[in-house]
Write a structure and sequence with these properties.
homotetramer; alpha+beta; UraD-like; Immunoglobulin-like; 11 strands; about 40% helix; about 20% strand; globular; OHCU_decarboxylase-1 (chains A, B, C, D); OHCU_decarboxylase (chains A, B, C, D)
């Protein structure tokens, strides 16, 4: 799935078997979705293609739809550990850190998976790209308490989210990325009244009081921004984050006379993300003796 | 040394042996300082008493002054571990965490102590109440590179600092605490335009990337302040600190509709203290979507 | 009324005629209130005295109470201009600028006074110390639309406000001023992380787009505050205000290299006061390129 | 000069008389500049054309260059009032308000013009598009004190500035406007954590304590910005400005319960512009009880 992205023109023109080969894995173990969508070609936009694939599932008989849910791999489950799932699933679970759990964590997932399957008859399905590890566990526990009918709909909605992101990754399009979601920043030096260039920035996910994971690292450019968003063009996993700015190093380089240790050295800005498709612009407005942030735009 | 504080009136009136018993430990293993100061009574203020004791040392013969330096206990050294030092020293070293070091850290101190003694002929003396653990080690290393003459003066200055703080702890006085140094805070809710009451605040010392120590904990009152400073009436150890405010809990209690997780939940404000006798007022001005701080007054 | 303030002890002890002479003007043209209160002596506090005088009025027959309302002078009315009102009223009206109106404004007041008297049978009574000129006119117009019963109660409440302030001005007491109300400020220099001393501050009332009145002028001290509040110990008239800070001059004096004109020179902070008895702390946190304010505490 | 802009292609192709007709007024009363530049065609860019015209002047004999300076109209002078100057000059002087002076101001300009001409033998030349009225007078007075040699160079530099702006107005080009200079804003609502839409914004020039001139008026869009900069694509006259935001109306429309008058209603942000070609981004970050600004980017 990491080869050169397909174009819509090519997809509209190719024989059905090629179309199914190209898009069969968008829905896990369900190439029949691509096959049925193939007959509805041509598509004017990637959105129209995504809508068509979703309609195929919504119009399918109950049993077939249930089979699609049942065919999904468990999170951090045995199939995943044994490699018996779609490569896309492997990558998604790895990005969420589910391939690097401790034995205790695996045990916890196994217990949750078993309880869920016992209650609902299907594996727990969640678009893991939209959740940090703590959020993922919270959702898992919350959904165990749902009514079965509600839960079936929730699971299907998650399947559609997974499919939409996979499709967007496979098919090239014009315009801005169709999968939104962004963390960006901007540093202003209000001693000199201009953007702060050359500031090292790190983005960490705060998994727990003990564990943080470095997500991205960058340096601000002449406009005080990073050349690319720290997270962009993909959902921002629901989680607590911390931006850390090397403000003291910047001020020293700018020739300010700082105390030892300086009042402000590495400045952490901690914030939570609850809307994976949202834009979180978290600027830093600072002097050697003050700083602030807000959710910007 | 923890009994009811002495008054200056009582000190001015008591027989010399009692005076020496009362103040003999202000300078480590050097009751002769108190004895000589006794003859200079009466004193109008505690400052005058402190000045007199310092003058006794400055006017003493070189050899006696050197003996005073040589008599000081090493930091985290064998004497401290074996209990052969003044109770005041025990308490001071414990407050700096020097009684709870790992074996590796003890080894590091032993090596530094040995190197220092070899180079300067006296133990390393530092007013540990003015330093967090990281600062203490940095100072130790820096002073190993000093010229012997400079270092002798530095050691004496530290002895005077230790003595002044001990004396202030022993003798009651009127007016504001004579040992300054303060960390305070203040929380303002700019959605409602008033102080934020009932916010949980913690002050942590950031010893290293892995280790933080809880220093104080409080809840803001109706004026958005803590009833007492988080650190006050004593030197603030040179270190990196983090104030942590339970802002999300406050906003939830105030009835604001927050996302899950909220954009701002626990808000850390990280800052460095370089002047132990300074006043560090670090306010938080916040809404559910913004916050700021500055060194206030 | 500007002689040395009376003490409660003296008031409790003096013969009734003296007591009435001292406090007879607290209620306009109604020395009978002081006379009746005299019989209820002694008073433990000024509040108790104020309560007693108020009770005398509340317990008086309707006709006497109505006469008290009817005896009040009109605002900016003929009696005021001709000097036939209590000296306290003269001072109060002058402080509100009602002795310096243009002919058009006098005409407007006369028309309002006539309409009010025609509708309610009493003069319009308002505690003018609690209102700027624009607020005063707005209240006048709003009250013209009240129901007569409501308006009678409102007028009496205003009479009590006037009496309480007059009494507080006449009788000395311990503790903080009993008439609250305050505008204060505080300037922080976040380039240097300390209070900004020596900044010229002016407080203006913004009467209209064309007219502003200078209310107070001060210079910040070493703590970045003015030695006294800009308004304090009296009600803050309901109005729009502007604090103006000579920030550019401060930065130039501090040796910063400013552009010509500087980005920030005289910084106005405009704010409204709606609670005359409230405390409006309006700080300025600034650098040469940024500033902010908030309602502080 | 307000007809459809010329293209570089057309200018490169047209007969010399047409070229001179088109660009003859770029330098006041000096069509010979365009004529000489015509021979240097073709030009790859507008900048190259501008450079060529400037080179013509720099390479001209001293006498001709002096004649060009001498041919410039005085500011607010008799020629301007009598209509005997280039239409471009008329428009430029009008934009600076020089056609609407009081008699006293005209008199002041006449005196300055006379003094300048007496001292330097040429009229005072200034690119008025880069100066507010107060700045223009300050520059006039300052330059009266220059050395003649320096002043001649300064006048020529101003002529080039005037020519460059005129040329940019005449000739269409691709890319961003070649004449930079911008005042823009951005309003953030930190109660709700999003851009503040629908806020009325006015930009005023503060000419003096008594006189302000409305420069632009706009309403913020969904992104909290104005659709176009308040000033853009032209130099920002050196002056003091005030942005005024109808914040109270916004908060009322958003359903916040405000006092009467609100703490913040119309919020003025006053700032100075010293670099006409600079970008002045002056945002407002606000709640009903706080606001701030800084020079952004």
């Amino acid at each position: 799935m990491a080869s050169a992205p397909l174009t819509l023109t090519a997809l509209n023109a190719m024989p059905e078997p090629d179309f199914v080969a190209a898009l069969g894995a968008v829905y896990e173990h369900a190439p029949w979705v691509a096959a049925a969508a193939s007959a509805r070609r041509p598509f004017a936009t990637v959105e129209a293609l995504a809508d068509a694939m979703r309609a195929v599932i919504e119009e399918a008989p109950d049993g077939q739809r249930l089979a699609l849910l049942a065919g999904h791999p468990e999170l951090a489950g045995r199939a995943a550990r044994a490699g018996r799932i779609e490569p896309a699933s492997v990558a998604e679970q790895a990005a969420a850190g589910l391939d690097r759990l401790s034995e205790a964590e695996y045990a916890r997932f196994e217990a949750l998976n078993a309880a869920y399957r016992a209650r609902f008859g299907i594996p727990f399905i969640l678009c893991v790209k939209r959740h940090g590890r703590a959020s993922l566990l919270r959702r898992f526990e919350a959904r165990l308490a749902s009514a079965p009918e509600t839960e079936r709909r929730t699971a299907l909605a998650e399947v559609f989210r997974i499919g939409a992101i996979r499709l967007n990754g496979l098919v090239a399009g014009e315009g801005p990325p169709r999968t939104t979601g962004r963390i960006s920043t901007h540093v202003l030096d209000t001693v000199r009244g201009r953007p702060a260039a050359g500031i090292g920035v790190e983005l960490h996910e705060i998994v727990s009081a003990e564990e943080t994971v470095l997500v991205a690292r960058a340096v601000t450019n002449a406009d005080g921004r990073t050349d690319a968003p720290l997270i962009g063009g993909r959902p921002v996993p629901i989680a607590i984050y911390e931006l850390r700015f090397a403000l003291g190093a910047y001020h020293r380089a700018a020739g300010y006379d700082l105390a030892d240790p300086p009042f402000l050295d590495v400045v952490p800005l901690r914030f939570g993300v609850s809307e994976p498709e949202g834009h979180y612009h978290v600027p830093l407005v600072a002097t050697p003796w003050s700083f602030q942030t807000y959710r910007g735009s």
